[in-house]
Write the structure tokens for this entry.
Amino acid sequence: MAERKQELEALRDELIARFERYKAHKEQRNGPLDKDMEDQSIELQNDDVIEALQQEAESELRQVMHALERIEDGKGDLCEQCEQPIDARRLEAVPSTTLCHDCAELG
């Protein structure tokens, strides 16, 4: 469990750093668009990609934080739906999971 917690904490820190980089990029881009229409189109597409990546990182961060909370509460190895133990191989493959394979399949 301690190894999984360390892995999740490292992932949390990486996601926070990634989120901050996306945020900084967006803040730099708040200036006027390029005068060239083609360049404007590329800038807007890039902004859309950065926004999607930021939302993905935020969602993953919430999942990691939730898994860490469950570990702190002593429930990190139990499925939060059926309360049965989550297979160790699943926890190793998907450290931020809070569902057993069966419940994840149903959801």
Observations:
- DSSP finds four helices and no strands in the chain.
- The chain has a mean pLDDT of 87.
- The CA atoms of residues 18 and 56 lie 10 Å apart.
- The helical segments are 2-28, 37-72, 88-93, 101-106.
